[in-house]
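Hey,

The postdoc asked me to send both predictions to you directly instead of through the lab channel. I've kept everything plain text so nothing gets mangled by the mail client. Protein one:
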Amino acid sequence: MARDKHYAGLTFEQAVRQYADTVTGVCVMRLQNYADAEDCFQNTFSKLYFKSPDFDSEEHLKAWLIRVAIHECADYMRKNRRVTPAAQLSEPSQDFDFDRSDMSWALFQTPSQYRDVLYLYYCEQYKVKEIAIILHKKENTVKSLLKRGRALLKSIYGGDSGA
C-alpha cells in the first residue's frame, strides 16, 4: 500500500513537505500562473503516491519530481493552450507579488527553454551535469542554454551591451 511506502526514506507526507517549494517553483516558472501551477503540483504528487517508484536517494527523488512536474506542465499547456506569453508579463500581474529586483520577475521574461535551465541552476542549485540528466539534454546543450539565458537576463536587467 502506498500509504506505508517510503520514498528514499521519507514518508509521502515528508516528501511533500520537503519538495513542495521545489515542485511549486518549477510549475510556476513553467506556467506563470499559480492556479494552473497548483493543478500540476497536485498531479505531480499524485503520480508519486499512486506509482510509488523506488528511489536510490533523496536527490533521485527530487530529480524525479522535477522531471514529472516539467512533463505535467507541458501536458497542461498542450491541453489548455491559454498560457500568457512572457512579453505580456512585463508588469507583474495580480497573480504575482514581486518586484523587478526579484529573479523570478526576470525569469518570467525568458523563454521556457532558458527559464528551466536558469531556474534549476540558480534557484535549485543544480550543476550542469545534473540539469542535463533531469532535462534529458546533453551537457553542452545545457551550457549553451545557460550562456544564452544569462545574456537574456543581463539584457532584461539593463546590463551594458558594450562590454
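Protein two:
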Amino acid sequence: MTTTTTAHQTLLGFDYGRKRIGVAVGQQLTRSATALTTVRAHDGKPDWSVISHLIEEWQPDALVVGIPYHMDGTEQDMTQAARRFCRQLEGRYRLPVYQADERLTSYIVESSLSGDSDAHQDIDPLAARLILQDWLQQKESQQ
C-alpha cells in the first residue's frame, strides 16, 4: 500500500470482552477515533450479526483489536480470547486485523468518568476509541 492510500483508511476498533465488546471508528487521515457502540456477547460469543452490520455500514479497510496484558507485559486470561477474536474477524470479514496493546485502557477511561454513574454504561466504546486512537497515533509516529 502507498502512503496516499493508507492516509484515507477507515478503521474499526474493538475492546473485546466476554460479555461486551466496545466498538469505535477512526480515520487514518485525522488519526482520531469516535466511540460507536457496545456489542453484546453471550457465553463469550460475539453477536456476529451486529458486528456484520457495523462492517457493512462503515466499510472499514482494517480492524484493530485491543489485546490485554499484565503491566509487566505478560499475558493474562483474556489475552488468548482476544487473539481468538482477531482470528475470527480475519476469517469472517477477510480484512487486515491489527493487534494493539491495551494495558491500562479501561483504567484510564474509568478514571476519566469517576463520579458520573451514567457514563459507566459507555465505558466499552470509550475504551475502544482510546485503543484505536492510540494505535493510529503510534502508526503515524512510525512513518
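Summary for protein two, as requested: The two ends are 13 Å apart (CA to CA).

Thanks,
C.
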